Amino acid sequence: MLTRPSDSSFEAGDWDILAAHWFPIAVAAEVGSKPVAARLLDVDLVIYRIAGRLAVALDRCPHRGVLLSLGWVENDNLVCPYHGLHFNADGRCTAIPSQPDAKIPNRLALVVIPAVERYGLIWASLTGTTPILPQFEAWEDADYQQIVCPTIDIAGSSGRQIEGFIDVAHFAWAHTGTFGDRSNPLVPDYTVEETERGCRVEYVSNVSNFGPDQRDRAPADFLWRRSFEVYAPFAARLVVHFPGDHKLWILNAASPVSARKTRLFCPLARNFDQHTSVEDVRAFNLRVFEEDRVLVEAQRPEDLPLNLALEVHIAADRTSVAYRRVLKRLGLSLVYTG
Q1: Are 190 and 205 in contact (CB under 8 A)?
Q2: Less Cβ crowding at N or C end of the chain, within 10 Å?
Q3: How far is 234 from 134, CA to CA, in rounded Å?
Q4: What is the C-alpha to C-alpha distance for residues 178 and 286, in angstroms, rounded to an integer?
């Protein structure tokens, strides 16, 4: 069983809790015949496919510790670039080229990590076994178009990033280049319901989800409903209700590369405008992510304080306060490192 690395940026108790959860580590379409490197909770991983079968393991050859992500897949085996040792999808060594007739020791095997492919992403858990992922039903709905946005790296903690995603008061100030409007900063009253896996928010306002050049597509008196579902520790789903019973589903899944480095994954699904450019959708959402990234990286402390007395809260922060309580409920430390 994996244990916390000696040089981990997480507190020991926090690492143990997070290592049992599932996080995205790669966009599925980007993992083909060549091994891909990933990092989760300060642990280096290699992702590869053998005969269509997905495999994830520690990115370290058990022979001399070389990164296997520098290798390649050949004859249904992952090949180490240093001495050519071959490993199958189960992590078992199948060949030692320098000693082809030698018996292969059982210890000469990779540390395989549980992984699944879902929502266009590859998810892994360092110590968990049964996948417990966010619910994203629109991904399997034939009426919806499914889109995976480019990943974005954030020099900040995953907790800060998710809290920013569910923060309804920052739209008018942080997103003026995309959909925000500083002349409309009001946050109407709303309620938060804590759930078994996190919390749920229904937020209704006249803040448009269209950019300035498309705002005439919605009636002037249209009320936008945004339904947030938080899945602790670091995922949140947003359903934006557009005019005409149109819906945009967004899954914001923050992967903790380390305590203060996050890789953000974001699958989308929409049941409207499916004739328009997918690249335009990706570009627009990348601009939104960039607006958030700048502010997440500017927050101090970099960690998300679960002790509510360490920061001042206002009425519009109900979602943020509920989220911090959820993380505290998981057992993460009060001054959360990560």
Answers
A1: no
A2: N
A3: 10
A4: 10
CA 120/CA 26 separation, integer angstroms: 9
Q: Give the predicted TM-score (pTM) of the model.
A: 0.94
Cβ neighbours of residue 83 under 8 Å, at least 6 residues apart? 61, 63, 64, 96, 97, 98
From CA 338, how far away is CA 324, in angstroms rounded? 13
User: What distance, in Å, lies between the first and last C-alpha atoms of the chain?
Assistant: 22
114 burial level (CB within 10 Å; 0-12, 13-18, 19+): middle
Full 3-state SS string of 273-304: CCCCCHHHHHHHHHHHHHHHHHHHHCCCCCCC
Give residue for tokens 């709905």: 141
Give the amino acid at 266: C
**Alpha-carbon distance 179 to 172, whole Å?**
8
pLDDT tens profile 162-221: 999 999 999 988 998 888 889 888 999 999 999 999 999 999 998 888 877 788 788 888
pLDDT tens profile 39-48? 999 999 999 9
Task: Identify the CATH number of the domain defined by range 137-330.
Answer: 3.90.380.10
Structure token pair of residue 162: 């998710």
Q: Domain 12-124 belongs to what topology? A: Rieske Iron-sulfur Protein (2.102.10)
